[in-house]
């Protein structure tokens, strides 16, 4: 089975202190990591090929540094990787991205295309399904289990309140993968070093034969206006002092507000 | 009549004996050949460096069993009797062979003393064997296992020894030579034969039984645990090998490959169980035993490298066994705290620390069996240079409000780099150590700086977790920072950073930078000795000191911290049951600080039970990991009203009258 996985490099923000610089996230102090959902998708694809043969190809779109996300996937066991890297792609909305991906993927002969359910940075959860639309493929979202069979894949989809749904899709198909579908493996530094010499296919806008007006912000229907941190709410009070003093102050406030009987 | 030995007296079919002897020797040779070809694999995996080792110490360890006596007098006595009884009889047999085939010298006085000498050796062997059986079955020593061969082997040897005496007795009873009293034991036994004729009739039967049992033993020798007679001396000798960290590239493909020294360990081990007895993990009831791990490693090494398992009909069995052992190893790979207690007590210096590191390295490379918490820790280490928070620049937070030169930037020249370490700079409880130390250094006029928020991880955690590549990367990052400012004098807060920077970093330093690395307890001790630090605030407290494994066992630093405690006026130091080189691990080493094993026993609680027994009001330690583990156990184990936990650095600051701050205030509260 030939599987394509779309992966994205995203900033890790869970514990970081974020700063917004001119309406955009300041990436200076942030580390770029593989989008969590995509990591599950890569692991799932690698497991399928480990169990029953085949190939895993990776595809990402981003700047030169984003090649890391492909190297990491190769170290996990993917067999080949392609990098859509061109300034002309910048500012694309999901629909435009889907068109770019569709052009790059067409004729690749993939039986199965996997993406994460969403990316952790923008969280639009639409590139995957739009790509299915562009390619005219059946798709299923939020997969928590995949059972590839002859000519079809059975997908267990996670629904609300612990319910799930099983759907069968004829291959080729596209599936967006939910987190928790597996336990992705650890990628060691040595593992990444080992794939350092593998060639990554570089794809630019010209190679796709897409006109400039079909790319980037110009072609996009959605335009990002600004990015903001949640405003500091009223009612927060910062206490200062040593530990004992902090405890006394906190207890006094609780007592005062009726929190302590 | 000249006393002399009559070979093959009263025995016919000597040729049959030679045939059987040839078979036994063939089995012996096959066994030794298997071992030697296995050990040769280790030489290929890691070359043996030349090193000096005091010969006297090795001889004392081998021929007096010095390290065995430490495990109990009866163990030492048993081994001494067995070893010398065995050696004496072996030398005697060789002498007989020389006498028979080369030069005849066993006659007259020489023969009489020779006979008496062999009687003594035989007696030692018998007594040693009786003691061995008694220790396992009658006393019994709890650490000893009772596997079938543990019983069969001493009984077999006993049959050899007693059979020898019976043959001798029968010969004496049949011939009654005038010098028979020299063979005093055989002479004593000869009285049991009713007549000379009876002894003569019985003699061939006894002789052949003795011959067959003895030859059987020779054939079994290299396949039994007595093979340690060959491997243990070599293992003890190679113990002095300099630390070698194989470059990652060299280990590619065959990560589990062990060097000669570690392959020798496998055969040197006699499963005496001292390691299990002192292992904090095994003793806390977790399903881990250094002995079992070593035994599996031995089998795996045989399965992988032994020429015998190349035989086609053993191949399937080999594969099945390998897979079973692999699964068992995977289950226990992450228990070890690398506390080194096992190595401390091992009579043959063969504890499985390196094996565990290799096992972990293999798992990290393979990737899918790394526990998620450790994966998270390793990823944080890789991206953020610390195992605690996914945030850059978290390492300078503790120093807020303190004017400490940042040596990662251009700044003033200082004498010392204070390497704070990940845990000390980030964990809120451990930060108290950094603050106390920087205050003490400032107070004593030590010129020092830190690497500020650029301080990398020293690589210790990656090393202990088997992430070789990450370790190398972190060592290179650290070295680059140090080289930039020619920083060669380093003080570490954590015994873990201290150990790694002192021992492992120089192996990676291209310039071979002369690093002078101190643990802070050494530095404080030095300041006190030089009279630059005077403890003038009395602390009327009864304290006990918990030795961190990486100070005490890994670096033999037990006196400096105690010297400081004794120098503090008013302090009374009491020791816990396990202290100094026998310290009991807090459970935070080997990566376990960042890994909660489901259903894990609390190792630190066991430690605090020992502390409570001393009646101390304060438990002092000198390591951020110990501090956190013990502090947590104090809260969860119900010791809160019994004593407080404090770090030596914080206590020093108090004895100097430097204001208690933050974490320390917590400890004294």
Structure, explained:
- The complex is a heterodimer of chains A (261) and B (669).
- Chain A is an alpha/beta fold.
- Helices cover 29% and strands 25% of the residues of chain A.
- Chain A has one domain: HUPs (Rossmann fold).
- In chain A, helix 3 packs across helix 4.
- The longest helix of chain A has 17 residues.
- Chain B has 4 domains: 186 residues, no CATH class; 125 residues, Orthogonal Bundle (Fumarate Reductase Iron-sulfur Protein, Chain B, domain 2); 155 residues, 3-Layer(aba) Sandwich (Rossmann fold); 137 residues, 3-Layer(aba) Sandwich (Rossmann fold), CATH 3.40.50.
- Chain B has a 4-stranded parallel sheet. A 4-stranded parallel sheet of chain B has the order 6-5-7-8, with helices on both faces.
- The N and C termini of chain B lie far apart (92 Å).
- Chains A and B meet through helix 5 of A and helix 17, helix 18, helix 22 and helix 31 of B.
Number of strands of chain B: 8
Uncertain residue ranges of chain B: 248-255, 661-669
Shape of chain B: elongated
Spatial arrangement of strands, main beta sheet of chain B? 2-1-3-4
Task: State the distance separating the first and last CA atoms of chain A.
Answer: 66 Å
Measured as a percent range, the helix fraction of chain A is: 25-40%
Count of discrete structural domains of chain B:
4
CATH superfamily of chain A: HUPs
How many DSSP H or I helices of chain A?
8
CATH architecture descriptor text of chain A = 3-Layer(aba) Sandwich
Structural domain count of chain A: 1
Classify the helix fraction of chain B into a percent range: 55-70%
Quaternary class: heterodimer
Measured by residues with Cβ under 8 Å of the partner chain's Cβ, the largest interface is: A-B, 24 and 29 residues
- Taking the alpha carbons of the first and last residues of chain B, their distance comes to 92 Å
Task: Using the alpha-carbon principal axes, give the shape of chain A.
Answer: globular
Radius of gyration of chain B: 30 Å
DSSP E strands of chain A, number: 13
């Amino acid at each position: 089975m030939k599987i394509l996985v779309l992966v994205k490099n995203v900033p890790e923000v869970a514990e970081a202190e974020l700063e917004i610089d001119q309406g955009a996230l300041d990436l200076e102090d942030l580390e770029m990591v593989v989008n969590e959902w995509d990591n599950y998708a890569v692991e799932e694809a690698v497991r399928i090929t480990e169990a029953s043969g085949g190939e895993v190809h990776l595809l990402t779109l981003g700047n030169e540094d984003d090649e890391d996300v492909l190297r990491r996937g190769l170290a996990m066991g993917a067999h080949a990787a392609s990098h859509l890297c061109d300034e002309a792609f910048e500012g694309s909305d999901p629909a435009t991205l889907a068109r770019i991906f569709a052009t790059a993927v067409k004729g690749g002969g993939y039986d199965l295309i996997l993406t994460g359910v969403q990316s952790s940075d923008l969280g639009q959860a639409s590139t995957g399904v739009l790509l299915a639309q562009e390619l005219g493929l059946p798709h299923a979202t939020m997969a928590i289990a995949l059972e590839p069979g002859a000519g079809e894949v059975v997908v267990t989809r996670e629904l609300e309140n612990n319910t799930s749904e099983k759907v069968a899709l004829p291959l080729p198909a596209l599936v967006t993968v939910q987190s928790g579908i597996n336990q992705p493996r650890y990628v060691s530094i040595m593992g990444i070093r080992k794939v350092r010499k593998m060639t990554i296919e570089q794809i630019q806008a010209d190679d796709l034969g897409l006109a400039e007006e079909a790319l980037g912000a110009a072609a996009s229907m959605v335009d990002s206006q600004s990015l903001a941190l949640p405003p500091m709410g009223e009612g927060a009070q910062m206490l200062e002092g040593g530990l004992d003093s902090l405890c006394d102050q906190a207890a006094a406030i609780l007592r005062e507000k009726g929190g302590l009987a | 009549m000249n006393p002399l030995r009559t070979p093959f007296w009263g025995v016919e079919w000597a040729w049959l004996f030679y045939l059987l002897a040839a078979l036994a020797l063939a089995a012996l040779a096959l066994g030794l050949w298997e071992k030697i070809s296995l050990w040769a694999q280790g030489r290929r995996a890691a070359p043996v460096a030349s090193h000096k080792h005091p010969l006297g110490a090795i001889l004392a360890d081998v021929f007096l069993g010095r390290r065995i006596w430490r495990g109990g007098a009866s163990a030492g006595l048993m081994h001494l009797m067995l070893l010398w009884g065995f050696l004496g009889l072996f030398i005697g047999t060789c002498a007989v062979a020389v006498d028979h085939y080369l030069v005849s010298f066993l006659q007259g006085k020489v023969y009489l003393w020779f006979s008496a000498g062999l009687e003594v050796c035989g007696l030692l062997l018998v007594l040693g064997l009786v003691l061995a059986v008694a220790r396992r079955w009658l006393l019994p020593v709890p650490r000893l296992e009772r596997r079938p061969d543990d019983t069969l082997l001493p009984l077999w040897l006993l049959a050899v020894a007693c059979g020898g005496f019976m043959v001798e007795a029968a010969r004496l009873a049949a011939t009654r030579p005038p010098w028979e009293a020299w063979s005093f034991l055989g002479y004593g036994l000869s009285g049991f034969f009713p007549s000379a004729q009876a002894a003569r009739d019985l003699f061939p039967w006894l002789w052949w039984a003795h011959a067959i049992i003895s030859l059987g033993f020779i054939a079994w020798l290299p396949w039994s645990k007595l093979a340690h007679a060959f491997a243990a001396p070599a293992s003890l000798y190679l113990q002095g090998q300099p630390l070698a960290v194989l470059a990652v590239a060299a280990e590619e493909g065959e990560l589990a490959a062990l060097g000669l020294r570690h392959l020798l360990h496998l055969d040197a081990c006699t499963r005496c169980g001292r390691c299990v007895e002192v292992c904090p993990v095994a003793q806390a009831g977790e399903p881990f035993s250094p002995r079992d791990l070593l035994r599996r490693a031995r089998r795996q090494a045989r399965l992988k490298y032994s020429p015998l398992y190349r035989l086609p009909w053993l191949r399937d069995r080999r594969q099945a066994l390998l897979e079973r052992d692999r699964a068992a190893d995977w289950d226990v790979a992450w228990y070890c705290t690398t506390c080194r207690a096992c190595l401390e007590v091992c009579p043959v210096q063969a504890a499985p620390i390196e094996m565990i590191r290799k096992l972990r390295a293999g798992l990290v490379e393979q990737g899918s069996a790394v526990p998620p918490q450790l994966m998270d820790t390793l990823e944080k280490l890789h991206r953020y240079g610390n195992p605690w928070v996914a945030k850059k620049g978290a390492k300078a937070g503790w120093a807020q409000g303190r004017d400490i030169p940042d040596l990662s930037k251009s700044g003033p020249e200082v004498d010392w780099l204070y390497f704070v370490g990940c845990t000390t700079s980030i964990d809120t409880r451990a930060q108290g150590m950094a603050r106390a130390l920087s205050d003490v250094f400032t107070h004593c006029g030590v010129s020092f700086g830190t690497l500020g928020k650029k301080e990398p991880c020293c690589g210790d955690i990656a090393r202990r977790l088997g992430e070789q590549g990450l370790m190398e990367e972190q060592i290179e990052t650290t070295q680059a920072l140090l080289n930039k400012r020619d920083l060669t004098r380093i003080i570490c807060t954590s015994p873990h950073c201290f150990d790694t920077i002192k021992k492992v970093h120089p192996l990676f330093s291209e310039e071979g930078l002369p690093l002078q690395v101190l643990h802070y307890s050494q530095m404080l001790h030095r300041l006190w000795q030089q009279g630059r630090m005077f403890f003038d605030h009395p602390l009327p407290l009864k304290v006990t000191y918990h030795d961190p494994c990486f100070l005490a066992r890994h670096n033999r630093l037990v006196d400096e911290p105690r010297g400081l405690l004794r120098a503090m006026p008013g302090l009374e130091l009491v020791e816990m049951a396990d202290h100094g080189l026998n310290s009991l691990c807090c459970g935070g080493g080997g990566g376990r600080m960042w890994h909660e094993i489901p259903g894990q026993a609390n190792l630190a609680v066991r430690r605090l039970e020992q502390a409570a027994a001393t009646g101390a009001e304060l438990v002092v330690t000198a390591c951020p990991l110990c501090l956190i583990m013990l502090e947590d156990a104090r809260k969860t184990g119900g010791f809160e009203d019994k004593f407080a936990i404090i770090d030596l650095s914080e206590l020093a600051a108090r004895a100097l009258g430097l204001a208690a701050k933050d974490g320390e205030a917590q400890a004294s509260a």
